[in-house]
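YM 10:42: Phage portal protein sequence, as discussed on the call
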Amino acid sequence: MSNLSLFFAQNVVSEISEEVIISPRFKNEAGKPVPWKLRSMTEDENEAIRKSSQRKIKERGIVTLDTNSDEYLAKLVVASVVFPDLKDAELQKSYGVLGADQLLRKMLLPGEYATLLQKVQEVNGFDRDVNELADEVKN
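YM 10:58: structure's back
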């Protein structure tokens, strides 16, 4: 039998962080690409982001929730990026925008944004399916 204490909060890595190169265009003084620091979040945080990206739609007397996936993903990315500080007023001002999500759209090329989104999904565990995890447990 397994030991249930392995699942106690104090025994679990609570946050995963990772440094990744999103773009070779952002360079340090030595001319090397600067890594972005990403963090994982809890499902509570994810749920709050998802709910803030939903709106109610009433059609024929039936109310349903519609999630704006672009808004959800943008908020997920913003919440996961630790460095650079996307909420920094000077950084936003340098790009002529207000808001972290608008900043990302202005500072990144489409492919860079896609890379960042992919890395954010990976650090938050969205990159693995249940079958992969089951195979890992079996081995």
